[in-house]
Every structure is written in structure tokens, then in C-alpha cells.
Design brief:
DarP, DarP_sf, mainly alpha, elongated, 14 helices, single chain
């Protein structure tokens, strides 16, 4: 009879069955009703032990998580906590209107007070120049003033609101002690600085007045010379008498008569179609020396 191919396996299974039966007998007939430490050790050493592991009995499932750099979660939490809340549209509008109001109030102050407030608020020269420009605009230039105040408001948006309100209110009340407290300077130093600024501003105002007077004088003598030119060319007796009656300035009256007669003679020549362009050129060249002569005379007569 041929040997069964499962014979070796059945031979190996007998000792294992014997061991299990002995362990079971020891468990059930133990006086304490518990497995001994030796039997527990034997069970753990058996390669075919079918005891379920605690991990296999747990029904919990774990989700996948992408790996990240160490400390990334902490950085995100800190960045979220440190981020400033976003301002609403109404808050931005209120801040813009407040900054424009500051500019309007500052423009009403004298120049030394404006400089003092801007210095304490640590504002740049650009703000001062913008305020000086809006002070020079007249009240009738409404659109220009509105745009300039909006520009000043944009420059003042980053100023500390409490400090600017306190400075403007102290300037309105003339409270020098409060201004000194806000600026952190002594009153004596403030007075000296104020006097220096006033002297400097007075000098600038005088220079500006002189420039304006020069411009006005230039416009006046040009207007006067133009009136004289028209009166002499068109033989106005009143203007002719006025020009030749100028006594505070020495001028060549005969040269003036010659220049006037030259222009009048060209104008009195009969017009011919072929000579129209030539006559215009002659008139232009003849008028230039008379214009220069009369402007020089008018300028000297007004300066005396």
C-alpha cells in the first residue's frame, strides 16, 4: 500500500494536539481558576496562536494626513491670531472724512502753528507744501480746493488720530502748555522757535509781495504802452498829448514821431492785391521798434 502524502503533516500534528490538551487541562483544573505564568508564556511563544491583537479589534479608522514641515501648524495659528481685522468700507470712509477735516482745520491756522503741529506729528514736508498751496487758492476756486483737501487727507490717513485731534484742539484754544506737553519740548524753546519761524515767514511774505508787485507793475506798463501805441497810430489827440507830456522820464520825442509817421504812411498807402502780403510784412517790421520804445517809456514812467 502506497504512503499517503499527508503522513508527515499528521505526524507533526500529534505533538501539538498533546500540548494543547495539557494546557487546557491546566487552565480548567487550576485551583485559582487562572492560567499560570508559564502557560501564558507558552501561549505567547506558540507560532500558530490565533489570539486576536488589540489593534485588530479596534474599529477606529485613521484618515490620511499630508506631511508638513515641523512647526507649520503653530505658525499658521500665530499668523491668524496676529492678523489685524480687515476694516469695513464704512470705517474707511469715516477715516477719509476725518483726514480731510484735519486738512481743512490745519489750513485755517497761521503758518507757524501749522509747522508746529506737523513737526509734533512727525509729518513730512510734502504735507506742509500741500497746505500752503490750498491757502493760496481763493474761495472761488471750489473744485481746486476740494481736490487739494482730498489729497491732503490721503497724506494724513496714517497719523495717530488721538494725537492729531489733541494738537488741533490745543492750537484752536491757544493752549501752549498742552502743545508743549504733546511735543515734549520746553516752553522757552517753543517761543524761540516760534519767533524764528514768524521772522522767516515774514521774510517770505515780503518776497512774495515784491514778486506780486513786480508782476502787477509789468502788467501795468504793458497795458499802458499798448494804449499809447493804439492812440498814437490812430491819431487820438488825448493820448498823443499824454505821451508827449511825460516829464519824469527823458526820451527822444523826435524819434517817437518818426516811428509813428512810418507806420501811418504804410497804412495810408493804397491796397493792391499783389502787395497785400508785402504791406503786412512792412507794418509788422515797422511796429516792432515803436512797441519797444513805448514799453521802455511806460516802464520808466511808472517806476519813477
Amino acid at each position: 500500500m502506497a504512503a499517503s502524502p499527508l503522513a508527515p503533516l499528521s505526524g507533526c500534528a500529534r505533538p501539538a494536539t498533546t500540548i494543547l490538551s495539557r494546557i487546557s487541562t491546566a487552565i480548567f483544573f487550576s485551583p485559582s481558576g487562572r492560567t499560570s505564568s508559564s502557560s501564558s508564556a507558552v501561549l505567547h511563544r506558540l507560532p500558530f496562536s490565533t489570539s486576536p491583537s488589540p489593534q485588530s479589534l479596534s474599529p477606529r479608522t485613521r484618515g490620511l494626513r499630508l506631511p508638513g514641515p515641523p512647526g507649520s501648524d503653530d505658525e499658521l495659528d500665530s499668523s491668524d491670531s496676529n492678523a489685524s481685522p480687515k476694516k469695513s468700507r464704512n470705517e474707511k470712509k469715516r477715516e477719509a472724512r476725518r483726514a480731510v477735516r484735519w486738512g481743512m482745520e490745519l489750513s485755517a491756522f497761521p503758518v507757524p502753528q501749522i509747522k508746529r503741529v506737523l513737526k509734533v506729528a512727525s509729518l513730512e514736508r510734502e504735507v506742509f507744501e500741500a497746505l500752503m498751496l490750498v491757502k493760496r487758492l481763493g474761495p472761488d476756486v471750489r473744485e481746486g480746493r476740494r481736490r487739494q483737501f482730498n489729497y491732503i487727507g490721503r497724506l494724513l490717513r496714517d497719523v495717530q488720530p488721538e494725537l492729531m485731534d489733541a494738537l488741533i484742539q490745543a492750537s484752536k484754544d491757544g493752549d501752549n502748555s498742552k502743545l508743549s506737553t504733546l511735543s515734549g519740548l520746553k516752553t522757552d524753546d517753543d517761543e524761540e522757535e516760534k519767533e524764528e519761524e514768524e521772522e522767516e515767514e515774514e521774510g517770505k511774505e515780503e518776497d512774495t509781495i515784491c514778486e506780486v508787485q513786480k508782476d502787477e507793475g509789468r502788467a501795468n506798463y504793458i497795458e499802458l504802452s499798448t494804449r499809447w501805441f493804439d492812440g498814437l497810430i490812430y491819431k487820438d489827440p488825448l493820448i498823443t498829448n499824454e505821451v508827449f507830456s511825460v516829464h519824469n522820464v527823458e526820451f527822444d520825442r523826435q524819434e517817437l514821431r518818426k516811428l509813428v509817421r512810418k507806420i501811418q504812411s504804410i497804412q495810408e498807402e493804397p491796397l493792391v492785391d499783389e502787395t497785400v502780403s508785402g504791406k503786412d510784412a512792412l507794418l509788422t517790421s515797422a511796429k516792432r521798434p515803436l512797441v519797444r520804445f513805448l514799453r521802455s517809456l511806460a516802464k520808466k514812467s511808472l517806476a519813477e
